[in-house]
Specification:
This protein is an all-alpha fold and 270 residues long. The chain has one domain: MetI-like (MetI-like fold), CATH 1.10.3720. Helix 2 packs across helix 5 and helix 8 packs antiparallel against helix 11. The longest helix is centred in the N-terminal third of the chain and has 45 residues. 35% of the residues are buried.
């Protein structure tokens, strides 16, 4: 009798387990279904005009503004992360950490408006430099937070050991800690650049857009984000292909950067 009751209880558990597993799989499927539908629509409607001159110019502008923003943000972000980890617990470090967290949660539209007042209005022109600065302001808090977390959690012992044997703080960070975290930091920087590819609001105030090639760092620059936004606002059927092509280009950019960052993380974990 006890064995029959036990077998019946086990059978009920197996049935509930199958139902719950099926429910989770169904929820996962319906969660991913809109994403796959969007990706199929973008791919089907955008691949025909992906290699046109206008999309190529916008893709080049996107790469330029993202690369220049990394040139600006990486030194500040890594340096700020080093300071926050080295002087963790001090009042100044806590204030800077809170300010960085506040900036990371600030709407990108407000950052674009601030950079517009700082750079665009005095120069009387939107430009590659202004767009890069706007994206860099968004990237610095993320890079600083990732740098601090990785330094404090993975290299603190090596840093303290180097100090114990007589190394200076500069030597401990530059010769011990940072080389150990080269790959994770590169992955974090790539993730921040992938995040910047999805931002349109700050570029509306700073980059300028247009359909011509870049004429200089102080001239307006076309980007895929602005191309998609501008062509979508016109609501002209003839530009629908350009909208999808720009969205497909952004998707390819983001996917390549994301896969590269994940590969670097995986190789570091091994």
């Amino acid at each position: 009798m006890k064995e029959e009751v036990l077998l019946a209880a086990i059978q009920r558990r197996k049935v509930r387990d199958r139902w719950f597993t099926g429910f989770l799989m169904g929820m996962g499927f319906f969660t991913l279904l809109p994403l796959f539908m969007i990706m199929i629509a973008v791919l089907w409607n955008g691949w025909r005009q992906l290699f046109t001159l206008s999309v190529a110019l916008a893709a080049a502008g996107t790469a330029e503004v993202t690369a220049l923003s990394l040139v600006v943000s990486v030194p500040f972000g890594v340096g700020l992360g080093l300071y926050l980890c080295d002087d963790r617990g001090t009042a100044t470090a806590n204030v800077i950490r809170h300010v960085a967290n506040f900036l990371s949660g600030l709407p990108s539209l407000l950052i674009g408006m601030a950079v517009y007042e700082w750079l665009v209005a005095p120069m009387e022109s939107r430009s590659l430099v202004a767009g890069s600065v706007a994206l860099a302001v968004m990237a610095v808090p993320y890079i600083a937070r990732e740098t601090e977390n990785k330094l404090c959690s993975r290299t603190a012992w090596f840093h303290d050991g180097a100090l114990a044997i007589g190394a200076s703080r500069y030597q401990a960070w530059t010769r011990i800690a940072l080389p150990l975290l080269a790959r994770p930091l590169v992955a974090a920087i790539l993730f921040s650049s992938a995040h910047m590819l999805g931002e349109t609001a700050p570029l509306l105030f700073t980059a300028g857009g247009g359909r011509s090639a870049l004429r200089g760092v102080f001239a307006p620059v076309p980007t895929l984000q602005l191309r998609v936004y501008g062509d979508a606002l016109t609501a002209r059927p003839s530009l629908a292909g350009q909208v999808y092509a720009g969205a497909l280009g952004l998707t390819i950019f983001t996917l390549v950067i994301f896969m590269l960052a994940k590969w670097i993380e995986y190789s570091d974990a091994r």
